[in-house]
Each structure stands twice: as structure tokens, then as C-alpha cells.
Design brief:
Length: 616
Amino acid sequence: MAIIKIKFAKHFDTLVPYVMDGRAPTDPIGTHDCDERDVARDFAALQQFHNGNGAVNVIHIMQSWSEAESKKLLPEEFNAIGRELAHKQFPGHAFAVVTHTDTSKVHNHILVSPWHTETGKKIEHKKRHLYELRGISDKLCQERGLSVIESMGKDRHARLPEKVQKIAQFRGHSWILDLCQKADFARAYATSYDEYVGILGEFGVKARVEERKISYFYSDKVRGKRGGKLSPKYDKDGLEDAFRANDARFAKFPGLREQVRGIVGAAATRGVDIQASKDALVNLPQSPYQQGHRDYSKYTKMERPGRAQRFPHELDLSGVLIPIEELRKARNSNIIQYCQANRIALERNSEGKMVLKGRSFVEIGEFEWVNKRNRTKGSLIELVAAHKDLTFLQAVAEITGNKRLHLLEQHLGETKRNFTSFYIPKEHRLNELDAKVKIASVLVQHGCDPTHASALFKGGQAQVSKEGVVRFFAKDDDGGAFEFTESTEHNWHRAKVGAIKGAFFKVSTGSRNATIYLDPFGFLASQGKHAFWPAKYHQDVICLMEPDEKVLDHHLATNRRIDQVQVFLDPKSTNHQVELDFFNNLRSRYPQIGIQIGESRGMGRERSRGDDLPSF
């Protein structure tokens, strides 16, 4: 079974020595249209001859085999596989194949010049090369009696839920998720492409509508994302369905646009509160904006980048339910002034840039903030939404002072944001010593070793506010938490806040087996004082914050070798029936994609379970 990786690199003058110096004297080398004694020189000559330039000057393919497979063939035969692979995928290109045997796993380094030796045409940097290389490599390995990745393992990812596939596909790139979040907001209020594009534009997302597709450009990114690649609901058919549905929804509330825009003078001039404004709708005449026959496929044409840009005219946006001028006013509000007024601590980093105190990876400008860690960007709208846990519309109302915007959510419902930080700001946290005491108290009540309080506190997975509220987080996930408040009888009561999207703890060992824990306290109580020691585990372990198929699916999608899963069921759990139903759902789904499910009472004490648990 050969594993294939590909990298498009710039500096062959450093890559070639790395590959050559790593081989043993007897390791074989195979070349085509270049001299093995000076590959870098020959690649440079090809580039110069064809006036080549760009960010990619060499393609580096890594082809490796398992320890067992590495013993089946001679190094020269593995080198021959690499040469044939390069010939088939990149005919007419110079390449060098260097086989390394310095480890127990034989592997090839294949260096390919991106310029065709005769035509000078350059190989494009596309993902399809990886998939094509894997297919060719599998065929070459089969011809020589080597194994390939089982089709069941390949199909497993395809059968996972769509949202899980997207997360795995985008590899956690938060800007993609942020883009989708903003698109959700725009499609909730738009009734035409022009309105949709206009609302997105106020959130720093450009959308280009064309005859057959729509593309999204996040912030200043040059390469767009096709709507169909994100989700069908962001493509043209899905959007036109949303426009049609929105028109039908909005028509049920005649006069709502006029009320939001302040045409009803009482709400605008006499300071009437929201409830009074809502009551006033009853007496409004029928809105001139009526549901009728519309062509939802119409849009304002926009030229491709590099030409003069044409955006929806202001008249085309005049009918949008959310006043564009309110979004624009909020977006153009000063972020630094807001932080100062609301006591959000800022400081300057070593480069002299303003950053959030305690989160130096978030750079703050007057009208834009940038998160260097997850590559997201935004204006004051997103910052206020995160700071005060508001929807985007509520944040706009907060910034502009236009309380009439709340009428939209009262009538049409909230458009929830999926990603909000529930970390407790440092200035609101309890001191370390007292915080650990509180965390330890929660652990003791749940039958866990109180010494874990220190590790949870230092890792940021448990935080305590000055009011004594304790929050437990998944690893590297601040979008949700379990919140514990202490009663007068000194009992801790648990509530969920936000949306938890990560695991509490996980270890990948390379094993085909995995044990799943459905609750942090069941995991900690079962594993004792060394629960957080990765070295103690001989198979994969994943502890969920709660029974959540999406989190588990994501882990299995990125660890396709796993085909045996044991679920830890604690009969003393207060959530036992929910866990049983979750277990049964797994037992009905996973065998269809080659994963066997059993029940565990702890590491090393597994047994399979019969068909005796009803699932509802």
C-alpha cells in the first residue's frame, strides 16, 4: 500500500540537496532528461530556457510503503515504480527519483520539473494531480503484488454527513466557515441576487454571479470558492429557492419594510419602544411591496477580476429588507474606539501593531480586525457579535442604535451564528488558586480525581469567572462549553452554552481500534489520575463532550484506518438513555461503511452487544 503526497515548491536549489543528502550510498537513483549529479542545475537550465517564472519551480512527490510492504521488493524495484509513475503522470518532463532506505519504510522522493522539455508548457498547481497519482500508483503496486488502500476505506469518507465532509475537506480553515456563516445571514433576508450580493459585500465577501454559477471571494482573496463546492444551498438553484421562500415569508408581514426603515414616524421620532412599534404594525396599510411573479434568476452582471467592476446599483438595493445603509454605517464604525469605550483591552505587539490583550494573534485596525491564527477577518459588526454574543443583525442594531432592526427577528426569527467564542475574558476570570479549587470541586462531584484541575486550567479547557461560574471546553474549541453554577447546597448544576464542535480529549496511535467516551467525567473517572497521558494508550481514544455523531464522524474521516470502535457506556451516567440511543444509531450506521461497533466498560474490557437496545 503506497501513500502518496505532493508539494509544489519554489526553491529546488535547497530541496534537491535535502533529498540527495538523505540517501544511503547504495540507494538507487533514476532520472529522465537530467543528470543525477546536478539535478538542480538542469532544472534551472530548463526554467531559464523556457523563460519560466512563478511560485512553483519544482514538484515534490513522496511515495512511501509500510514496513511490511517494504520487505517484499528490492530498492531498485521501488525506484522503478517511482520512475514509471512520473512517466505516466508527467510525460515529457524532466524528473529524478531518489529511493531512501534509511528507515524501516522504503520511500521515494520524486522531483519533477514543471516545464515541459519541448513545449515549455508549465504544469498547473491543481489537486487533481494528487488523485491521479494515487490511482496510477495503486495500479503499479497491484501489478507487483503489493496491496492498495481498500475501497471500503475510501468510500467511508464519501458516506459521512455532508457537513463533516466539508470540515475535513477544508481542514478546519475557519475563513471558509466564516464565509458560509455570512452567506447564511445574507440568504435569510435577500429576495434577489442583487440584494444577496449587496448584503455580502457589507461583510467583506464579494460574490460574482454568472450564467451557470456563483463564486465567492472572501476578503482580499484572489481565488474564489464556487457555491456548489461549499453547499448546494449557496449555489444558484439553492439561492433562488431561498429568494422565493423569503418573498413568501415577508409578504405575511405587510408594512414590515416601512416600519424597519422608519417610515412610520411614531417609532422614529417619539422614541416608542420595540413592543409599541410592533403593535403599530397592525394599523399599517398594506405594503406596496407585494408578493407577485418575479424572475428570481435576474442579476446585475459583473465582469471578471481585472476589468472594470459593476456592482448592483443603489436602486437595485433599495427594496432589501435590511437597510443597506445601516449595514454600511455599522461596518464603517471605528473598532478601536468601540474597544476603548467597552473596556476591551488592547496592546501593541513587537511590530507596533494593535492587538487584543491576551490574544496577540488578533490584530486590530480602525475598521478591520484580522485573526492571524485562523485567517478570518471582519469589521466592528463581527467583533460586537462575538463580544456580546449577538446575532449579526443585533450587532448592527447595537452599533447604529437603530432598535427597529429588532422587528425583523421578532417576526422572522433569528439567523444564528455558528461560531462564537465562549472563553471567559481574562479580566473577568477568577485568580488561578481559587479557580483550581472550584474546578476540583466540580470534578469531585462527578467522581473524578481533583488533581486534573491543574491540567484543565493550564490547558484552557476549564475556566472560572469571578462570579464562580465554571466552564469546561473541548480541546481548541471556544464555540461552546458546559457551564456549571453552584447552588446554595454546594451542588453543581450543568447547562450547555453555545455549539460544541470539538472533542474533549483524543489520542491517535496508528491502531485500527478506537475507544469512544461520551462524557468527559466518565472518561476521567474511568482512566484515573493518568487520563491525560497519551503514552498509556495503545489504541485510539476520543472523548466527546457529549454524544455527537458529527465530531466522531470527523475523527473517523481523518483516520480511515480505524475499523473497530468500542463505545464506553457508563451505567451510572445521568445521561444513560441518551448514550444508549447514540450507541444504537452508531450500530446501525457504521457497519455499512466497514466499521464494527461494540460496547466497552473500560479500556481492555470490551464486548459486543446484541440487538436488544431499542433506538428511537
